[in-house]
Amino acid sequence: MLVDDSYMDKMDRKIINMLQGDFPIDDHPYQIIAKKLKIKEEELIQRLEILLENRTLTRFGPMYDIQKLGGSFSLCAIRVPSERFEEVTEVVNSFSEVAHNYERDHEFNMWYVLATESLAQIDKTNQAIEKKIGLKVYNMPKIQEFFVGLHFQA
Amino acid sequence: MDDLDRKIITATQSGLPLVKEPYQAIAQQLDIAPDLLKQRMRVMLEEGKIRRIGAVPNHYKLGYTANAMSVWNVPDEMIKELGQQLGALSFVSHCYERPRFLPEWPYNLFAMLHGKSKDEVAEKVQEVATLLGEHCAGYELLYSKQILKKTGLRLKELSPK
């Protein structure tokens, strides 16, 4: 895939690199950041609007750790026979607890993330999925987290 | 987390308003004092309930089109040390220990790798393999073929009591 990045200028890149964390909790947070970038507050806000609109940014705001808020999530995998892939996808996706689901290039070809409000619901949901599809679900909740973050250079 | 925190979370989890005084705007929406909102958010940030406040770039748009889940089989007793080393690499976005399922799934260390091409990711895999050295008993790379569902992780609003 060719990447057309002509729509982003140097200032956009500076904004993206600078704003991947530490946005202030202050009455005039945009003003604080704009000063550091030596641009006007209005310009910063307008550039952020455009970056969100053209999907260069997917989100702007606080990133919550759902687990610390009392919720649970888990990464789960299934080895789906290729001839059953579509049918199994439909069943798995029909559960509202399934937040993401990816097909991956491997014998373990279906990887989904469950997000629920309690640990018990993770097991319950996986049992319900297993029962419906007749395939083993490999529940792989994180045991330890070493790093979560993004430091993409724009 | 009490009801007020929950209200703050549901009001801000999809983003901060792009207005000069974004916290005032949210406080007004929730009908609370701006100082209370800011104080609650500062506490949640300190407690790690808010990981960070900022922009989430769409890594595909920034040219990071090759994204692979790398999985590694390392000794359990060394996983903390090795996991921290992997997590510190600039091209790793998530790094976790997860359970093995022997014999079919021997991998216990997961790291998401991002690059601008599959060749670049392959180079990075080599870098990780070198770093782990003799402690690595095997690894695999799982590229995503298709997004089947992506609704995001969202806390539901409180149901009316």
What does this protein structure show overall?
The complex is a heterodimer of chains A (about 150) and B (about 160). Chain A contains five helices and six strands, in the order αααββαββαββ. In chain A, a hairpin with a 5-residue loop joins strand 3 (about 100-105) and strand 4. In chain A, helix 2 (about 30-35) crosses helix 3 (about 40-55). Chain A starts with 9 loop residues before the first helix and ends in a 6-residue tail after the last strand. Chain A has two domains: about 10-55, no CATH class; about 70-140, Alpha-Beta Plaits, CATH 3.30.70.3460. Chain A has about 150 residues and is an alpha+beta fold. Chain A has a four-stranded antiparallel sheet with strand order 3-4-2-5, with helices on one face. The longest helix of chain A has 15 residues, at about 120-135. Chain B is α+β, with helices and mostly antiparallel strands and about 160 residues long. Chain B folds into two domains: about 5-45; about 65-145, Alpha-Beta Plaits (2-Layer Sandwich). Helices cover about 35% and strands about 25% of the residues of chain B. Chain B has five helices and five strands; from the N terminus they run αααββαββαβ. A four-stranded antiparallel sheet of chain B has the order 3-4-2-5. In chain B, helix 2 packs across helix 3 (about 35-45). At the A-B interface, helix 2, helix 3, strand 1, strand 2 and helix 4 of A face helix 1, helix 2, helix 3, strand 1 and helix 4 of B.
